[in-house]
Amino acid sequence: LSTNRNDTIGIGGFPWIRWYQTFGVGYVPNDVVPNVFMAVAMDLRDDPANIHPRTKHDVGYRLAQAGLAVAYGQQVEYLGPIVSTVTLDSATSTIDIAYSKVTGIDLRSPNGFEVCCQGTQCSNDNLWVASPVSLKNTLTV
């Protein structure tokens, strides 16, 4: 979970924690909790530290932007990156995920990505499979 690790040991139940924090939607605000927001800080790499980044200014800025948008209705950018397209290629067993609202992706580890191999929404840990992730271009993994 901490950015100073480059393996899958620390991943554990973190995706489930995020899922339940969003009431089973995957993001906030949403229709279930329209007045809730959060600031993701997993991208604020801080190798010598633990899960809590020392760059509090970045986290504070993200929370302030979300608060201005959600609580005060101001038109400010506070969400992202947003998945713009997902393409499945069954012949090569690959999934391309492209993002919008980013200038580039900095992939720091191939670990921590999982796919659900079912035709319906997965809810059982056993149905999720660890899968390496790699950059296809600056906006697609």
Automatic annotation (TrEMBL):
Coiled coil: none annotated. GO terms for biological process: carbohydrate metabolic process. It comes from the Eukaryota. One of its GO terms (molecular function) is sialate O-acetylesterase activity. SUPFAM superfamilies: SGNH hydrolase. This is Uncharacterized protein. It comes from Adineta steineri.
